[in-house]
Design goal:
Blueprint (H helix, E strand, L loop, with lengths): L13 H5 L4 H11 L11 H11 L6 E5 L5 H10 L2 E6 L2 H13 L6 E5 L13 E6 L9 H11 E15 L5 H7 L8 E2 L2 H8 L2 E8 L1 H16 L2 H8 L1 H19 L3 E10 L2
Parallel strand pairs: 1-2, 1-4, 2-3, 4-5, 5-6
Antiparallel strand pairs: 5-8, 7-8
The protein binds S-adenosylmethionine.
The site of S-adenosylmethionine has 22 residues, from loops.
Length: about 270
């Protein structure tokens, strides 16, 4: 399956990552998420706390965060559990921000961020990690069976994989909704049930499958409103086209999620041997 979208990889994220550390974008995150942990997804801090209960991380353990963005979620996990983390993302500005946040938070010794395309083989030996996370990004990778098999290769026996899939088709969608919702580069839309089958096929045992669509609907709408109330400043920074496209993206995301037509699930699985 080829990448059909002609946008540069993760180019849609330029406005967010280019302005990530400005007070304006931090204010928007605080309003959208309640707590700004440096995320660029649908993840809130209370949701991450629940995820942590399933990951079994502690000092001495190692986590790989695939498509880590600006590193905020991975750094919060390191700070909370004491584990070490490697974060990878294809967006160089995001990785630079992640490294600088690690230094600012005094976590650079336990947190390393690398610019890596996660669609190919990953540059780590077999059984390198106790846990792997991938938050709201698996939809950007083609060939899901190959991607999850690669993650399974990197896990130690008994290690945990947690990913969210925010692009699970659970109802009817128009072509216009699909076009707007998939405007950030390559997107893979899958039916509910598909992720469970791939997980099983890759030698992982499913521990948790939970519908976490409500968070996505809430965050998308809160983010749209937080940006709308700062539209003059954002239009100057982003330009009218990028601003309008992002607002439309957030509006459609909130609507199709709120109506249960495009859903977000979290999957936790364990490497069996
Ligand atoms: C919705 S953001 C989520 C970021 C992060 N997980 C978080 O929770 O803040 C999706 C991320 O996927 C990254 N991404 C897209 N395609 C990628 C690829 N081929 N390899 C690695 N990262 C990629 C983007 O750069 C972006 O940071």
């Amino acid at each position: 399956m080829g990448k059909s979208n002609s946008l540069p990889p993760a180019g849609h994220y330029n406005a967010n990552y280019g302005n990530f550390q400005t007070e304006l974008y931090a204010q928007i995150r605080r309003e959208a998420f309640g707590e700004d942990i440096g995320q660029n997804s649908w993840l809130t801090s209370d949701e991450q706390d629940r995820f942590l209960e399933w990951l079994d991380l502690s000092p001495g353990k190692t986590l790989l965060d695939v498509a880590c963005g600006a590193g905020g979620p991975a750094l919060r996990i390191t700070a909370t559990t004491g584990c070490s983390v490697v974060g990878i993302d294809v967006h160089e500005q995001a990785v630079t921000t992640a490294s600088s946040l690690a230094a600012q938070r005094g976590l650079a010794e336990r947190a390393e961020f690398r610019s890596t395309d996660a669609t190919g083989p990953l540059p780590f030996p077999d059984a390198s990690f106790d846990a792997i996370t991938c938050i709201d990004a698996i939809n950007h990778f083609p060939e899901r069976p190959r991607v999850i098999a690669e993650w399974a290769r990197l896990l130690k026996a008994g290690g945990r994989l947690l990913f969210t899939d925010p692009i699970t088709v659970t109802g009817e969608l128009t072509n216009a909704e699909i076009a707007v919702r998939s405007s950030a580069g390559f997107y893979l839309f899958v039916p509910h049930g598909y992720d469970e089958r791939v997980i099983a096929h890759c030698g992982l045992g499913l521990l948790v499958c939970e519908d976490v669509t409500a968070n996505m609907a809430r965050v998308a709408e809160a983010r749209r409103k937080a940006r709308a109330s700062r539209s003059t400043a954002l239009r100057e920074i982003e330009g009218n086209q990028t601003y309008d496209d992002e607002q439309e993206f957030l509006g459609v995301t909130a609507r199709v999620a709120g109506e249960g037509r495009l859903s977000r699930f979290v999957y936790v699985s364990k490497k069996l041997r």
